[in-house]
Amino acid sequence: MPEGNTIHWLARVHTRDFAARRVRADSPQGRFAREARRLDGRLFESAEAYGKHLFHHWSGGLVVHVHLGMAGWFYRHPAPAPPPRPTVRLRLATRDVATDLIGPPTCELIPEFARRKLLARLGPDPLRRDFDPDRALAELVRRPRRTIGDALLDQRVLAGVGNIYRAEALFLTGIHPKRASGNVSAEEWERLWKTVRALMRRGAVRGRIRTIEPDEPPAHPLAGRAPADAFYVYQQAICRRCASPLEEFPMSARRMFACPRCQPEPRRGSKRRAKEKNGRDRKRRAAAP
Length: 289
Ligand SMILES: [Zn+2]
What we know:
Elements: H1 4-18, E1 21-26, H2 33-39, E2 42-50, E3 53-58, E4 62-67, E5 73-78, E6 88-93, E7 97-102, E8 106-111, H3 112-120, H4 133-142, H5 148-153, H6 163-172, H7 186-206, E9 247-251, E10 254-258, H8 271-287
Antiparallel strand pairs: 1-2, 1-6, 2-3, 3-4, 4-8, 5-7, 6-7, 9-10
The structure holds zinc ion.
């Protein structure tokens, strides 16, 4: 699934291709035909990204809202563009370039107030200038017992973070994904959002995700040369830095990866767990002959 970095990159490409131009709009697939007719030949003002949501602003206050979900994508064709495939939901075209949107779960024409309503449900976006980390922190501590790994994927905490960035940012800050949000200190939180933002900024340049620092020393000799070398832990078997076998476990219904040495798991010393253990010990003592 494209993460926020890709959506920001797409917004820049679309602004460059279409802003301040009259743009042809068409829906070869037919599912957006009525809306496309309203847009056809209208002035395209700008494209905007917020988290994983993309907005096209057209003259007259019309907004097209797109969410690419798991399988949606924009295909860009410099002129002369080939005839659109029958699956194209929306083709936007000028004399120079055409862009085909295929397979999005969401492509809708909405009024401006609906866009504002949608944004009000999202947390701050680390790639935007209006990013406010304190607002994210407030949402984080609202549910202190939730794991930090789960919280990072919640779009009400940080908009735009997906499965790859959460795994990589937690690794780089040495925080185990199963730590409770409430146990993450203010300093750790600052390191975490700064890491997320830096990784996503780098990924927004080309729309691709590559988290390994350009000046990172070579992988630990025991880690060998992983074929997919773009990530530290995501979909890896061995830690690039310490060569420990990585843990893999499901989290928020997605695959999660962590290094047991670089991201020590929280000690099982919480009051509730201690109480349970004492209870067990008492029973064991009582059952002993
Ligand atoms: Zn490690």
